[in-house]
Amino acid sequence: PTALLGAQEPMVLLAITEFVANSATFVYFTAGALHRNVSADTLPRWFPLQLKTKSMAQFCPKLQELYPDRPMELHLSARRQPLLSCHPDALHGALFGSAEAFVVLPNATRVPAFLLNIDANVTGKPTITGNRLGGTVSLTGGGSALPAPCQAQGLSVPQVKQLETGLKFGLWLFGVPWANSECHPHPVP
């Protein structure tokens, strides 16, 4: 229990408990709202790793051999409820996700290629600029990826360290900026 400060002048006081934050993550997780599908056409052309079997061949070499230059999809989802902890200066989160890769065939059939379990720690810090409330999100403590065997016939387990580095780079390049754009400052009433 924390005693709330007494107001001596007009101010906004925001108090979030771990119970409220974790209840919200439980609701989102239970409702199935913590997933996102990324396809080859959703990534910018300048992004260094395209979702094509040709690009992924460096992580799972037989992909290009079995499915030459085919587009891929990545299905990202939470495999467990995210855990949040509140601290005076920030909100810390532990994310437990999975990334399942599929090869998209000419008839639009999706063939499972590999599945990675990805864990990451993030920190969100509130910011106040003038009369605007916002925040920043950053990766803390890195992340880790554990492979499950490639599911398509004849594929081996992907080379995880390189793929993990690529996924971290993608999270740093796209995930964190997206989260920060969602935390842009809002006027305080």
UniProtKB/TrEMBL annotation:
Record carries keyword Glycoprotein: yes
Keywords for the protein's UniProt record, in alphabetical order: Antibiotic, Antimicrobial, Disulfide bond, Glycoprotein, Immunity, Innate immunity, Secreted, Signal
Entry's free-text remark on domains: The N- and C-terminal barrels adopt an identical fold despite having only 13% of conserved residues.
Task of the protein: The cytotoxic action of BPI is limited to many species of Gram-negative bacteria; this specificity may be explained by a strong affinity of the very basic N-terminal half for the negatively charged lipopolysaccharides that are unique to the Gram-negative bacterial outer envelope.
Keyword Glycoprotein: yes
UniProt-listed InterPro entries: Bactericidal_perm-incr_a/b_dom (IPR017943), BPI/LBP/Plunc (IPR032942), Lipid-bd_serum_glycop_C (IPR001124)
Coiled coil: none
Name under which the protein is recorded: Bactericidal permeability-increasing protein
One Gene Ontology cellular component: extracellular space
Cellular localisation: Secreted
Oligomeric form and interacting partners: Monomer. Homodimer; disulfide-linked.
Every Lipid-binding serum glycoprotein C-terminal domain range: 6-188
Listed GO biological process terms: defense response to Gram-negative bacterium; innate immune response; lipopolysaccharide-mediated signaling pathway
Organism: Corythaixoides concolor (Grey go-away-bird)
Molecular-function GO terms, alphabetical: lipopolysaccharide binding
Location, primary (coarse class): secreted
Gene3D superfamilies: Bactericidal permeability-increasing protein, domain 2 (3.15.20.10)
